[in-house]
Write a structure and sequence with these properties.
The protein has 279 residues and is mainly alpha-helical. The chain folds into 3 domains: 58 residues, no CATH class; 85 residues, DNA polymerase, domain 1; 60 residues, DNA polymerase, domain 1, CATH 1.10.150. The chain is built from 13 helices and 6 strands. The strands form 3 sheets. It has a two-stranded antiparallel sheet with strand order 1-2. A two-stranded parallel ribbon has the order 3-4. The protein has a two-stranded parallel sheet with strand order 5-6. Strand 1 and strand 2 form a beta hairpin. The chain is elongated. The protein starts with a helix and ends with a strand.
Length: 279
């Protein structure tokens, strides 16, 4: 009996001192904890979606939601776009969507509008015989606006040469560019012709406009090959290769805004390129 009692005492003593030792071994390592907190914060920032420059005219429902827009604000934008209209400034975007000033201030730094929308308007002036500049030709401008316009897709090189600033080479270049496109879809594509100055384009659009849009077979960006994508005049072959590589690495492309993540993609022409693509 004495042996049994002694064994019981030894057992309880070992449990008591062992538990005390284990309890004392738990302590907070401040350096390690600070490192863990830093890693957690870094992982949290990595999980948040990074905003890339984008054209706000092509905001999808999901994109608008991530930006903080309400359903009504997104619907107003889509209704505006269904009329084939574009917002060409942050102020116009707010006027269309009615978003708050605070939200506009947060997202507008990421807006990327086409370059041609930021060009200053050209005002033709009259030059007197002694090469002095006089008042703008407002009466001539009004007369041109009231005159009937011709179809940009059927105009010949000879027709185009009637515009001041368009000669033999530029008129032929416009026709060649139009043929490669398969026809102009919007008037603004005239700005994409190499060597054509913005003021010359403005004069041309006073006489010509896209009246009959051609039937274009859109390229599915999720199934097309590099060769098919590079046939589009706006996309160079190495950019087409990057698009296919991005698509394969991310399991597909869900919106045109994702194209802005691709290096060397002509983001300033995303609105025109989107006319030829489908998801």
């Amino acid at each position: 009996m004495l042996i049994i009692v002694l064994l019981q005492l030894v057992y309880f003593l070992l449990r008591f001192y062992g538990a005390e030792e284990r309890t004392d071994s738990f302590f907070v390592n401040e350096a390690k904890q600070a490192q863990i907190d830093k890693l957690k914060e870094k992982a949290k920032r990595a999980d948040t979606s990074k905003i890339y420059p984008f054209n706000p005219n092509f905001i999808t429902d999901y994109k608008g939601y991530t930006l903080g827009m309400s359903v009504k604000e997104i619907d107003r934008l889509h209704a505006f776009r269904e009329q084939d209209k574009f917002a060409n400034s942050a102020e116009e975007f707010q006027k269309v969507t009615l978003i708050s000033d605070s939200l506009l201030a947060a997202i507008s730094p990421y807006f990327k509008f086409p370059e041609w929308t930021q060009k200053k308007k050209y005002t033709p002036v009259q030059t007197s015989p002694n090469n002095t500049r006089s008042a703008p030709l407002n009466s001539n401008k009004v007369a041109k606006r009231n005159s009937p316009k011709f179809d940009l897709n059927t105009a010949t090189a000879q027709d185009l040469k009637r515009i001041y600033g368009i000669g033999e080479k530029l008129s032929a270049r416009i026709v060649k560019f139009r043929d490669r496109l398969g026809g102009f879809l919007v008037d603004e594509q005239l700005y994409d012709v190499y060597g054509l100055e913005p003021d010359v384009v403005e004069r041309a659009l006073e006489r010509f406009e896209v009246q009959q849009t051609p039937d274009i077979r859109k390229i599915n960006i999720n199934t097309s090959s590099v060769e098919e994508l590079s046939k589009l005049i706006y996309i160079q072959r190495h950019v087409a290769e990057d698009i296919v590589n991005y698509r394969n690495g991310n399991g597909g492309i869900d919106s045109f805004d994702e194209l802005l993540k691709i290096a060397d993609f002509p983001s300033e022409k995303i609105d025109r390129i989107a006319l030829y693509l489908s998801l």
